[in-house]
Amino acid sequence: MFLTNEHPDYRKPLDPVDAETLGTKAAEEVERYLTYRDNHAPTPLHTLPALASELGVGTIHIKDEGFRLGLGSFKALSGSYAVIRLVLEEAGRRLGRPVDLVELHAPEVRSIASGMTVACATDGNHGRSVAQGARLVGARAAIFVHSGVSRERVAAIARFGAQMIRVEGTYDDSVAEAARASAEMGWTVVSDTSWPGYERIPGLVMQGYTAIVREALRQLPGPPTHVFVQAGVGGVAAAIAGHLAILLGDRRPTFIVVDPARAACLFETARAGHPVRIDHGEPTVMAMLECYEPSLVAWRVLSRVADAFMTVDEEDAVAAMNRLARPVGDDPAIVAGESGGAGLAGLMRAAADPAMRARLAVDAKSHVFIVNTEGATDPSRYAALVGMAPADVVAPLAAE
């Protein structure tokens, strides 16, 4: 399914709050925070000339977030960042003065953090980032996971010392339970989705993703003409689209939001013209994108700066994973998890459809930017879908 943005707010300026959240000054602060993180380095940007030729586009560049801060996912930029910001703000309130990042490990700040509990619902990656952030600052973490989250992903979160709480139902059910229990226990919810009256913290989460754009624009030979980014609740898509719009203005690329067909909450929201909750059906293989209601903040941004919305099927996502794992020509091998390659799946589907190509002006002069949002965060699932272990995919590169 495919549609262009027909919302009345399309191409209007961002809401002032969102422009501040995703603006240059905020993004610079995110990068300053990253300099204090162990294992911080810009993630690789891969060029895929053979695939570009195959799809009839000029260039394809993929930003590989599988290498982000040792967590294997773009989410490493967001949950931990928001937790650190919240701890410093609470310390400032308690101490009666501004508290900067350089004081994060000061005894008085650690003492305040130790009395805080941060909580969130997760499909896997966001919870791992929040739990890591809590460990970094000395706070406690309570992570709510729905019944579809694999044991491997739960174990990856628990290793940071988080309290794991299982919730029957979907991701959206776990979001509701995290909010309910946190209100009862006095915990701070660090969610990557927003709802009426709860927007600032999801805004901080989105703010963390601006680092992807800033790194990519320094790595790319020039601005892209097209960007395909996958969406769950819409946070990363909105952050990338919003920051690109602020930086590039009228020169910004055509931005396409890619949803799983089985969990297309943003596609259906765009079709309706307002946020909608869709029915839960058969689970999607794109587990990190299996969300049935969009973030209100993300939709407010995307309604203005996204140019088109589309869906990809299960086989599209698996085909993208396998194409990246088994490259041709001089293309590098890339480990993309089930959700990580969904943006590429969107490009591959669009390139094969003459009508879609024409609507998006995808041609031999197009320079396409895509984000591989995760590596093999569930190695067993990855091996089952690709037929190779993640280590076997990247082994030839290591040998070089």
TrEMBL record:
Q: One GO MF term, please?
A: diaminopropionate ammonia-lyase activity
List required co-factors: pyridoxal 5'-phosphate
Residue ranges of the TM segments: none
Q: Which UniProt keywords apply?
A: Lyase, Pyridoxal phosphate
Tryptophan synthase beta chain-like PALP domain spans which residues?
38-353
Top-level taxon of the source organism: Bacteria
Its Enzyme Commission number(s) read: 4.3.1.15
Q: What top-tier enzyme class does this entry carry?
A: lyase
Q: Which InterPro entries match?
A: DiNH2opropionate_NH3_lyase, TrpB-like_PALP, TrpB-like_PALP_sf
Identify the SUPFAM superfamilies for this entry: Tryptophan synthase beta subunit-like PLP-dependent enzymes (SSF53686)
**Stored NCBIfam families:** diampropi_NH3ly, PRK08206.1
Entry protein name: Diaminopropionate ammonia-lyase
Q: Which organism is it from?
A: Chelatococcus albus
